[in-house]
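Entry 14. Ran structure prediction on the chain below.
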Amino acid sequence: MSHATSLAQSTPARSDLFEPVQPGPYRLANRIVMAPLTRSRASEAGVPTALMAEYYAQRATAGLIVAEGTNISPQARGYALTPGLYTPEQIDAWHTVTAAVHARGGRIFPQLWHVGRISHPSLQPDGALPVAPSAIRPQATSFTARGFEPCVTPRALEEAEIAVIVGEYRRATVNALAAGFDGVEIHAANGYLIDQFLRDSTNRRMDGYGGAREQRARFLLEVATAVASACGADRVGVRLSPLSPVNGAALDSDPAGTYGYVVERLSELGIGYIHVIEGITQGAREVEGGFDLQMLRRSFRGRYIANNGYDLRLALEARSRNFADLISFGRLFISNPDLVERLRRGAPLNEPDRATFFGGGAAGYTDYPFLSPAARQQPAGEYPVRPQRAG
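Output, structure tokens:
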């Protein structure tokens, strides 16, 4: 039995998971978040398509949609057919997407993305090398027009170039607001550029952006400050993956110390939420030598969104024990556009088609079935378990 199918066997219990919450300036319909999911359905020029508008509108019953990783510049790109937020055409097309989500009563943020070294010259302007804090080749692949190809050794950024990229994050935020987004999430996870700066395994710099954790965190904090200045700190989220070694990024030598410092500083900035991948991305939740992630939740004044391997049972438990304010689901949203309703009813879940995850058209993207009218008329489950303290 697959993981997705087994979730349908969970026994619902009463919880505020499905009740409204206000994690900032917006009232969300529930505490369920659609996590960012790269699907490579944009045009070659990074322009969102009408199919993408349909896809996100189908999933607008999530309390919050965090749209797929969205490139802040041509240099930021590491996967073919991913959208951007740096041209007028991209902004106009995103406006169609956000309008479709809002028409269904949803809220949507883009995930601002710079992949750093997880790229390939064929995806870079003029075939240039990808950039990174240090010239260390990752054991990872990039999705190009020819499929997945090995990453190359990147070029280390000059210090003056870092300020330019910080400005590109701010400009992408301004563009996101022009496109109708409700706020933005900064992608600082999964071994991409910001995470590359944070970890001493990928950052060997000897200048003001390397060395001690305070200097390695400088880039993220400058980005967060710039983004918050453009849209307000309470409309900004930051995604982190302190215990995940994906994309060839070995763990920091002191993840608790590094990410604990980062979260404390983000809290001081008044950032609206942190979105934490608990464990290994799309893998084990418990990591040998890891630390108690609730430390991050306790030290952060904003909202804590939990992600990675959550099903209905784990989500209910997290809320009942007040381990998270909101719960983020990723792959389950791929094959279940009405995931919120299916979880609320304890209904069966559709199986995802992995062959259609990246690239293609409507198949495996907008053609997954919703619950039948008869199923929607059945009484929903009761949820008697209440949180120990409202988050």
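The chain has one domain: 42-308+317-326. Will compare against last week's run tomorrow.
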